[in-house]
Amino acid sequence: PNLDAPKVTEVNKDSPAEKAGFLVDDVLTKFDGKVVKNFDELIKHLGTRKAGDEVAVDILRAEKPLTLKVT
């Protein structure tokens, strides 16, 4: 596993993250099909999208892969 991959540390009520189903300790592995190796890469990928875009985010939850749709 990539120990530098971004990890969810907080999910705010009524946030896009909560609505998408993110939980604390989820580990982000891909954003819109692109591998996310660290937090800086996640920020770079976020900058390519506009508010309201739907994006697939691949995560590991308890070491099991899942894909969430985020708007």
Structural commentary:
This protein is an alpha+beta fold and 71 residues long. It has two helices and four strands. The chain has helices at residues 16-20, 39-46; strands at residues 27-31, 34-35, 55-61, 64-70. A four-stranded antiparallel beta sheet has the order 2-1-3-4. The radius of gyration is 11 Å and the shape is globular. The termini are far apart.
Count of extended strands:
4
Characterize the biggest β-sheet. 4 strands, antiparallel
Unreliable residue runs: none
What order do the helices and strands follow?
A: HEEHEE
Overall mean confidence score, pLDDT: 92
Q: Measure the end-to-end span.
A: 27 Å
Strand fraction equals 25-35%
- Number of continuous helical runs: 2
Which class do the helix and strand fractions yield?
A: alpha+beta
- The helicity comes to 10-25%
Computed Rg: 11 Å
Please state the overall shape, judged from the principal axes of the Cα atoms: globular
Order of neighbouring strands in the sheet with most strands: 2-1-3-4
Reconstruct the topology from this structure.
Elements: H1 16-20, E1 27-31, E2 34-35, H2 39-46, E3 55-61, E4 64-70
Antiparallel strand pairs: 1-2, 1-3, 3-4
Key structural traits:
single chain; globular; alpha+beta; 2 helices; 71 residues
Task: Write a brief caption for the model.
The protein is α+β, with helices and mostly antiparallel strands.
